[in-house]
Amino acid sequence: MQPPENATSHRSWREREARLSRLVGEELPQNRRDIQEAKEFGDLSENFEYESARAKERQLLSRLETLQKELKEVKPFDYSKVEPGETAGVATCVRLAYPDGAKRTISILGLWDFDKALGIVSCQAPIALRVAGAKAGDVVTLPDPDFDDETLDVLVESVGPLPPEVLEWAK
Predict the structure, then answer these.
(1) Using CB atoms within 10 A as the burial measure, which of 15, 116, 159, 161 is most buried?
(2) What does DSSP say about strands 7-9 and 75-77: parallel, antiparallel, or unpaired?
(3) pTM for the full model?
(4) What's the rounded Cα separation, in Å, for the pair 79 and 164?
(5) Pairing state of beta strands 7-9 and 151-160?
């Protein structure tokens, strides 16, 4: 089973849901109270607190619309159900060998997924896009982390299944 293009881990989905819940349950009600309090200061045409609270309201409502749209379009997915193939892509773990001998392992998950400590990257991250389709033994060109306009030819040492700790993180 392959994940749909609009997938993310259950963990990232829950985090986004929690943001929406916090926005609706805490931030917007607080903002309404701030607007009401600012109205009590008098003349609205020269009331900085009122204008500031209204600007924040517009920002919060925009964020609400974005979160609702994202949660409607992106679906949580169980990455443990994927049987990885031989090519790098979503739901694979890729080991890279740099010319200086350094090694890096990345686990490619869904749209909203990222954890630096575990090497989890979104399928939309530049590195994931650059290694997509590569097989063990292939050489891919990646940006040089030390020089802005330079690239490095990096060896794909292996492509395999996601490690247990990444699958646990994604639950």
Answers:
(1) 159
(2) parallel
(3) 0.85
(4) 11
(5) unpaired
